[in-house]
Amino acid sequence: MDKIFTVTDLGDGLWEIADSVGCRCYLVKGSERVALVDSCVGVGDLRPVVEGLAGGLPVTVLLTHRHHDHIAGSYLFDDVRIPREEEVDLGVEEEQNLHARSFYVEQGRAPEGAFWAMSEGRRPNFSHFEEGDVLDLGGVTIEGYFLPGHTDHSMGYLLRERRLLLAGDAVTPCMCLFFPESLPIADWRQTLDKMGEMPFDTFRIGHYSHEFTKDDLRGFIVAADYALSGVRGLSWMYTYIEGLKGSLYISPETPTDDADSPDFRAVIGPYVPREHKRRRRRGTQGAAAGDGESGEER
Ligand SMILES: [Zn+2]
After folding, report:
1. Average of pLDDT values for 148-175?
2. Going from the N-terminus, what domains does the chain have, and what CATH number goes with each?
3. Of 16, 36, 57, 171, which residue is most buried, by most CB within 10 angstroms?
4. 112 alpha carbon – ligand 1 mean position (Å)
């Protein structure tokens, strides 16, 4: 593995920082302050990378939600904000981070003996950022919008002047709504409507290097409506938490079957057990085919 972080200059004071695991955070620079939206999974020392880009300006970390693969790097910073209602349990997230590390090393995505922020840094002293709160970076204004679904108080950060939304995991090609802290699919469907009304043209998310447009929301809405239509999903196992299952609904309009593609459209909701009495008709294709998928959060 050559290096842990890949930094991409997106122009006009915005950078994407991707770690070797595929988590992404975004550095936004104003004339007086920088904001780091999310902080990756904690592999490698993120702080010098951020400080190098910040050029001496103070850094505020804005977290989209509680999950360890977004908050771990914040253990290296002093000013860290998250919605109060996310009710982060750092003990739980640290445990999941430890568990995930062994997978990443095994898979060759993190080097053996790497620096891990949750071990090397210290628990952040969170302050809170609520819907409607504004952070002025000097010529760049960031505003918070709740985007509930993936977690109950996931937050999107709108870069007002740029009309760009940094959405974390609030809307992803394989939408994960199977966590205990996730909301029902119908609630996420409302978030998609809310996003349709918000003043942005494009959005970026936590695990893909891709700029989505507002028009892309339509494909997510089709996936949500399909999952809500009463069809039976495929049973799906989460790789990183033993026993955590979900039901996977692949949008009938997904243009690709490649679950890693930014064009993939699917929803993983809470696990719905099969109805054992229901007989499968001979020769029918559909949801039962390929049952038993597994994967990681995307
Ligand atoms: Zn997440």
Report:
1. 97
2. 6-226 (3.60.15.10)
3. 36
4. 25
